[in-house]
Predict the structure of Peroxidase.
Amino acid sequence: MDCLESSVRFDDSLMSNEFGSVDALLTAMGHKRFSFPTIPFIMFLSAFHAYGQLDYNFYDRSCPHLPMIVRFGVWAAFRNETRIAASLLRLHFHDCFVNGCDGSILLDDSLDFVGEKDAFPNRNSVRGFEVIDRIKAEVERACPLTVSCVDILTLAAREAVTLSGGPYWPVSLGRRDGLTASQQAANQRLPSPFEPLENITAKFTANGLDQKDVVVLSGAHTIGYAQCFTFKRRLFNFKGSGKPDPTLDSSLLSNLQSNCPNLDSSNSKLNPLDVSTGYMFDNSYYKNLVSNTGLLESDQALMGNPGTAAMVNDYSTYPFHFASDFAVSMMKLGNIGVLTGQAGQIRKRCGALN
């Protein structure tokens, strides 16, 4: 996948004290907080107290403008390219699934380790590093050596969802950045679109999540794109049959075969994961699965299991159920294997250790 083509400049005036609240900043940006019905904070705060030493108010005194800096940084990138929202969300997911949410995916290779950026699930695919780096630079200017890169990434993922029309959820803060990265762990632990549902579920379970989280977090595919190679076997040689996937809608099949011909040169071409509303965070992803127009084999497989199919049907009918459950699952995701206290460090630059 391509990187951002033009730089994002931060307007310092938007960081001034004239914006006394997040809502004031959002008004200045001309964007609503989210389109889903408001999810009561009390539901979250009663179900999710801060994990370990994480706290919803962790930076209130040490970096009070952090939420607005992150929000504006994501908005500026989103204004430049709406696709970046899905990229930031995926970046957060791929970080947390490899040895916990510790910002390891942001690290470049070093003499001591081979990083995760070039792992097979991430190679020429995971993106958004420049956005996090720009936000980190702004945060360092306001609050030097105070806020971790992983906290910035976690907040950025939330902002990406809300800017796309999805739900808002409170993010507990105080994570510390990890001291290493592992390409091997990334290759082994990240779910693949080619894996059967039971394997994907096992990888979620290994991170303290469950089958419901598989269905809910798969709903992130309501935004973003996939390269042709991730689903091409469904179009021409499904499971070695020499024929297309019989569950794939015939009209969609024809369109995909046209955009992704059975040639290596088409492998990196992009297609929307949600063929209905690819830039809007809504429940169309689940409606697509019900109508056999899911793009990835691993997505459509959710309809082949009675338990997951029941959840898909529910979310396709009741968007608020999806919104509220997605918020809860994202809170669980963001607290996988976090480092707190004196563990890890606060990186000055996200791509390298101090």
User: Anything to note?
Assistant: The first strand starts at residue 225 and ends at 227. The domain at 193-331 is CATH 1.10.420.10 (Peroxidase; domain 2). The beta strands are 225-227, 270-272.
